[in-house]
Amino acid sequence: MKKVLLGTTAIAVAGFVVGSAATANAAEPISVGINGYWKSAMAMINEDNDDGNLSDARNSHALGSDVEMSLSGATTLDNGLTVGFNAQLEGGNDAAVSSGEAFDEAWFYFSGAFGELRMGKVESARQQAGVTFGGGAASNFGVNSPFFIFGNGGGNLFTRTNDDGIGNEDNVKLVYALPSFNGVNLAVSYAPNDAENQQYGGNTGDTAGALQNNLAVGANYTADFGGGSVTLRGGYEAYVLERCNASAATQTCNDNPESVNLGAAVSFGSVTIAADTLTTSQITQTTTGTDRERSDHHVGASYNMGATTISLGWGHSEVEQTNLTTDELDLYELAASYVLGPGIDVQAAIRSGEFDDETAGDNNDNSWTSILIGTSIGF
Length: 379
Fold this sequence. Notes:
By secondary structure, the protein is mainly beta. It has a single domain (2-23, 33-378), classed as Beta Barrel (Porin), CATH 2.40.160.10. It has helices at residues 2-20, 94-98, 125-128, 198-202; strands spanning 31-49, 61-76, 82-91, 105-112, 115-121, 172-177, 184-193, 211-225, 228-241, 258-268, 271-281, 293-305, 308-320, 326-341, 344-356, 366-378. It has a 16-stranded antiparallel barrel with strand order 1-2-3-4-5-6-7-8-9-10-11-12-13-14-15-16.
């Protein structure tokens, strides 16, 4: 039924586009623009791995960068239909570079009175509902940001309340967003499988560990009140496992992994207070056959003073292991940024982290403090 509804929506929109083509000849062709960012950072890190293994020792200082360039363009036809695209080139991210993909995300869209329809490598409707706080004052850092981690948080790595880590967040999908109504935004997305190249053999089924029928819904609501505003958001995302990694006689997988997130932010004057949570039911089960869960929580507050913004954030994550233990991570961060000019700022942060590995014999417990300095250039 879900597939039928999505297919009907796409056909209806496509029919509207084709039927309107005859009146679109006078529209301007799409012109392409370039924007993006360049983020760089350095860190001084003091870590204390409990295992005492010198092979696990990490550098006391590190450098990092993350670059993204977006090619985008749009035109509005005579019938009011807007047609456009966005393609993002990313560098400085090991995962993006090693994948061999030229574009991190790339999609086209039609928008009009019916809302907006996207198709391509793009985040799900749940993710697009928005992260209410992100990095706080410093977009490079933040306990809820994957840009520059610089600390050994074990398998938890960092607090995440956006990407659920179950499937490929940039698999090829359809996203339909309804028109905004009284501050309410609602969207739904669907991907047949977890591939980014479904037309080149990526549409094969029953692959061990692969996912299909990725359905997501996301919503947010924003309202203004005397000098301030409130934003609420929520989302749900579900997947179907094609085939468990284990043999048919041994079921060690959750066939229907899913994730749920909730968030809220309140702004009044120069102050913003926000909280997010994400609960994920993972693919691999415990040794007793129960579903493993990961939960992430994030609370932050920021204060803006013109060109300067400061923030304080806390993040906590818990990841259940197959052996019924739970690894925990706590992150604390005080951050500040100063705007040098349009799209250009310098940032600094002090971050403290503590990772608790409860698996007997692993001894991967770690605590650390890092001093972070960086800059962000947007264009």
